[in-house]
């Protein structure tokens, strides 16, 4: 191919990509549909000019277009890793983990169900063997939900729903391609109807080994990028190489799924890189990948659409009947998941409820596209696949893709409108009317002040003021005539606005580089959770999410187990340090929300709602402060180091702004400005590193602060601190079972526990103890003790505790008080407390 013609075709493709997006917005069609249309028109136009007698001037260009070296490997090895890797970098994994059940249901279960439903329906027609039918089922089972996601975003649909669809787009390609590789192997080996059990037994190896390969490659890549922290472009270059190396290593060296390896590498980089790379490097890397994925997605659609005439070559009317069978089977399988399995998961509390209109939009928005065409092309290229299988695979996959793009893609937005998803809810509509009225009042005041400052003529100001006043009066009338908003709804809307303001504050702290990228992502995830739970649960949902953001869940329990039992401290130290930073960030943000309530929310929702929101934020700030105080008590030096680090980072940002202002004012030149910025970056790289947290609790300090040990002399306290054993606990952890024998007594250094026995529930906090009654009164019915929050216990064995009771009247008094508190007879409680002294 002539290099000039090739360059011209490449430039033309970029031009089509640039024009496609605004054209799609104007025609209100999905971007992918426009690109596919461009590709089909290009292929048909090239065929027409090559065969027409009108002119021969365009023959070289037409031949070049039709002879483009488009092979399935180009899609699978060049474009697909780029698309998948970018999606993994852009998703919010912490929030996606909350919805892992519906995501896996749509991304894996739905793909498997669609594969076997389509394959079974085709097999019943008798045109192809079972393995070939299942191969076609795997090819058409992968969806491209980007169109429906973009529409949901434009409609301000719930973020959780958009996130579920994004998670499906991340994993369904991987699942479908893994199944495709499995069935393709049987078809190429000429095994028409093998046993499905052994065939599917290979599936876990494809997934597990592929994911492990991606994890290993990404860990090596992160280490290499962290060594090159001063070279941002080098880090981006390494990230570009990573998905391709992972794909090739998995496919060629391990014999696993390259797609799964790419997903595993991207997810690992998403989790590990923010803590190892600077925020600026991580942001630049994601921006580069956004651009690469945009181009890759556009090119894959354009090039795949060029293949459509070739794949449909030789189609007969009966073949389109098979396309109809596949279409009905695929839609039926997806509908069964959406209307059958998802509601069951919602009833079981495993999945957020998805309303019927949204399920209809998801069903009709399951467009197929370039991946389906690329997999079909791989089948048609293989000479080891029988001729009839190759021909029917190309025709069925292409016909089904065209149906989804032309019929579903064109009618998707009208369907959304017919379902009423474009309309605001009554509550949002009432709020919109009030917001517009309040905003226009503020605008009128600001415009009047600006007109006076600029000395505009009265005639101009009067004419514009009259027009604006009419608009303002109309807005006020609409607000007064509209449906009134109840106080409970106003509180809900105010809390949603507060969570949104909290999110904006976190983003500003990140832009100012006052907090790390990892910390910003975690804080943003918590703010998103606040917004979503408040929308569904109102004030109680907000409180529930606020409490959950302070504590820690299953990961902390597992990390505490590793630390307590296996003496592996790394995971617990990292999670505890993350919690330290998150609480510090939340404390900073909550201090600024009172001003937002007074300046913004009060004007819209009134004084009563504002006062209630002040009270809710105040209580939440107290909870954050208490949790932070508990950590400060355990690690006093670490809290101080984190606060010093925050001050240093803030000072560097202010210094950078000052230099920028001096540069803009012409007081310093560009050379000096660049030198000063280089010095700031050097100091910032030092300030970015988070101090290492030592989990060794300062037991001597804690013993000194315990009221129970106040009557002990210094020597006894020192020996006691050495005898105590530290135990880290997480919320929900069972600390003592009903049937477990008592061997020690636990003193609560931080956190809280709940004791349940004989229908009675007692809660204990810092400075109190438990286990002493079971130790001193073995025949007493034992209690179950459960941790209410993350904390630290100091445990003392039986012999040392008995010696402690003999030495300490305060401990003996505490034992008697605890026995009385649990309902024990006063004489017995007194004897129990004095038993060791007898």
From TrEMBL:
Bilayer topology annotation: Multi-pass membrane protein
Record domain Cyclic nucleotide-binding: where: 708-822
Compartments in which it is found: Cell membrane
GO biological process, alphabetically ordered: regulation of intracellular pH; sodium ion import across plasma membrane
SMART domains on file: cNMP
Glycoprotein found in the keyword field: no
Main localisation: membrane
PROSITE patterns, per the entry: CNMP_BINDING_3
Entry annotated with the keyword Transmembrane helix: yes
GO molecular function: potassium:proton antiporter activity; sodium:proton antiporter activity
One Pfam family matching this protein: cNMP_binding
Descriptive protein name: Putative sodium/hydrogen exchanger family
Species of provenance: Limimaricola hongkongensis DSM 17492
